[in-house]
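During the no-cost extension, the postdoctoral fellow (Dr. R.K.) reprocessed legacy sequence entries with the updated structure-token encoder. One reprocessed record is reproduced below for audit purposes.
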Amino acid sequence: MQSKLINRLPSQPITSHFPLKAISQKSIPAKSFAETLQESVKGEGLTISKHADTRLKQRGIEIPGDTWKEVESKVAQAKKKGVKESLVLLKNAALIVSAKNSTVITAMDRKEAGSQIFTKIDGTIIID
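Re-encoded structure tokens follow.
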């Protein structure tokens, strides 16, 4: 008679998944709510470039706080409409503002602006 051999296999449960490796997590320093809020508030206003700051001081141009708030608001509206570079005309000054970066690039008084040609401007904001 022939002997029947049965190969015994180790008994392990059949699973359809492979063991997962431990995922290493990078430790990210947690910011407080106050810090996050301060960062978001900083991003809302206009930044004045060093060049524009120098021009404002050289030319003696002073822009009141309420006018700055209006300029910030209008630039934000222009940005929503797709404006990237804008000319902002005020009573006493003309500003070139990057709406894309929320940065005042340069500034001049209105008399000087009257004899200038502005290029690469895709929007104008007039605040009188």
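Helices lie at 33-42, 50-58, 65-80, 110-113. Residues 46-126 form a domain with the YaeB-like fold fold (CATH 3.30.2310). The remaining legacy entries will be reprocessed before the final report is submitted.
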